[in-house]
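Hey L., structure's done. Input below.
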Amino acid sequence: MVDQVVKYFREKEKFIEFQNIELDLLKFIFGSPQQIFGITVFEDESSLQRGWEKVSEEFAVRIQSQLVASLYDLKWDMYLILVVQKSIEDIELCKRIENDRMFFKKIVLAENLGDLKRKLPIELELENSDELEVFSDSQFLKELRKVVPSEVASRFDFSLYESMSITEVNNTIFLEPYKSKEV
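Output:
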């Protein structure tokens, strides 16, 4: 399982593997301008239960606390991936670990827990796109009329949006008055 996870990150062009950081418990660190992922491996469920907090502390102290200056904001986009080599029976343990948001988000991966790509917050993969419902401008305005209070609707000229594109109307209403005043 860990080979599959590491291969996934190595194949993504946006991630860099940091190999010259000496860590005791973390096995791999991958970073991009948007995210940092730490990966560790546990043999089984009981070793996960005993060791996940220690790995979490190492990731926080050795990596997260070192993010300063322009890297400081990355501390909010860190993820600890806990790979378990065997199946996990105690789903409540996984929930407890993944719901613990101390320092950063934790993700538990095991063979019996589903597709790893669905658990990793890296890219949005939309399946069954034929089921997606996308609003056109006119559909959006129709729905907006239903929810806008009547006193607001009476002051709002919806007909403008029916005769021009939303971009043109927004420019006319919100930008043009200020351009003429040279604000």
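Helices lie at 2-11, 45-62, 91-99, 116-119, 137-147, 150-155, 158-163, 166-180. The longest helix spans residues 45-62.

-- N.
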